[in-house]
Amino acid sequence: METEAERTSRLYAEAEAKRISEQIDDDLREERERLKKKKGDVKVNALYNYAPHILILRCKLLLLGQAESGKSTLQKQFQLMYKPTSMDQERASWTAVIYFNVLRLDDTLDEDAEAQPTSADDSQSIIPKKARGNGIADQPSPSTSLLTGSIIQGSPSSLMPSEAGGFHSHSMKEGGALQIANLRRRLSPLVAADAQLAERLSGGISVSGSGEGGVFVRSGWQARTIENALGRIKQKRPSVESEKKTREIETQEPQDPLVQDVRRMLEHIRELWHHPTVKGLIAKRKLKLDEWSEFFLKNITRVASPDYVPSIGKVVILAVYRAHIHLIPPDDILHTRIQTMGVAEHIFDVNIHGKSVTWHLFDVGGAQGQRHSWVPYFDDANAIIFVAPYLEEDPRTNKIDDSLQLFTQICSNAAEKRSLDKTDLLKAKLDTGLKVRKYITSFGDRSNDYETVVQYFRAHFLQVHRRNNENCRVLYTHFTSVVDTKATQRIIGNVRDSIFRGYLQSAALV
Ligand SMILES: Nc1nc2c(ncn2[C@@H]2O[C@H](COP(=O)(O)OP(=O)(O)OP(=O)(O)O)[C@@H](O)[C@H]2O)c(=O)[nH]1
Ligand SMILES: [Mg+2]
């Protein structure tokens, strides 16, 4: 016979069992509904609920690709997304890089003035660039400066456009040559400034295997550049007055005297940029500027202004404020170009489904002499983002081929994601009549439109991946312009989710 105490205990146990059973039913129903809504999210939540101790607390991500492919630009997008305040703090240090990019106009003028058109078809002709310094093949860059070179003296006619610039007569040509010669004389102090800027950015260290004449930055250069500038100010004026000034500077934007000196001379660069002769050469495509130099030269008035601070992370929009229209400048920092030396680690706390995960992003130098430094990072990388530029018109090296070869080597090594980059430039080049088959013969007679070209490149990379995917890694492809903040940040979000899902699958938890 059941006692009262036993009965109470039994009823309690039955009620508890029923409650647990209903709870499980509810959980399962909820789970099913969530699964229907968003499969991936449910898997992630399930992991957090039932196995919180095995969360990835650390995720290693490698950014690989050839030089100038856009790895550091993509890294800046990550920083903009996950650590925007640090980007803001570094703004002043980017001025030196931007001025360094602006001074490339002189180099380009010098070398292109000596070069001859490569084909009778001007719309297609690309003037070859000479390698600076050690001549690394995938680091095309100028070798001498207009400031020290001899374009006008050596070959005045080469700077004379016959149609686009409107200089037909001999005397007009001579007039243009004289004006440019005068400008160059005024620019001569920039020779030293250019070298100093290069030294400042490279931290005074020259390393073999670096392209672009050894001008590069290493991890943490932003802080060093600012400290350097402030250190020089302190050294120059060790008085009470100077200490007061230094304190003032520390609370405002750091002011680098060298950068200030260059800024004052940019007026002459502006004149050179607007000179009809230079304009004529550009119009006839006899002057090939790097896209980053061109970007800053087009903005030279803003960039040379006394209170200039590089803009950051803004989409170009027109803001209407009290009936005034303000043009918010495009992002300067994303358009800068300075090559990376070695491997730079960037750490971000990334929020994934409400949990914080520490990401270690490794941005590597892509020059051929740099690639050996990637090796130690392959083993425990959770994912690789391989950045491939679409089409670079460099006659000395077929960049797509180089990218495919590099991709083949990487495929047999590790997990990878891939991003096909510089789609904006591809579109622009196709619009100006560039024929893909001229650079890639296997493209054949396919239609020269953007969609066909994009799919053609994609198919190439997929094929390489299929043939070399010994580790059965997953490949995701994205087409993007990395300087487009909105589009790139959407891709970063996708990459984050797919890496996390891949991790869960590899842990056999879903
Ligand atoms: N217009 C445009 N420019 C781009 C794009 N991606 C990169 N760039 C520019 O290309 C230049 C080279 O990019 P980086 O990010 O420095 O190249 P990288 O791969 O880090 O090069 P290394 O450090 O030498 O290996 C920069 O000036 C970028 O602004 C793009 O999608 N569109
Ligand atoms: Mg880089």
TrEMBL record:
The keyword GTP-binding applies. Mg(2+) binds at residue 340. One of its GO terms (biological process) is adenylate cyclase-modulating G protein-coupled receptor signaling pathway. Residues 113-171, 234-255 are annotated as: Disordered. GO terms for cellular component: cytoplasm; heterotrimeric G-protein complex. Keywords: GTP-binding, Magnesium, Metal-binding, Nucleotide-binding, Transducer. One of its GO terms (molecular function) is G protein-coupled receptor binding. InterPro entries: Gprotein_alpha_su (IPR001019), GproteinA_insert (IPR011025), P-loop_NTPase (IPR027417). The keyword Magnesium applies. It comes from the Eukaryota. This is Guanine nucleotide-binding protein alpha-4 subunit. It comes from Laccaria bicolor (strain S238N-H82 / ATCC MYA-4686).
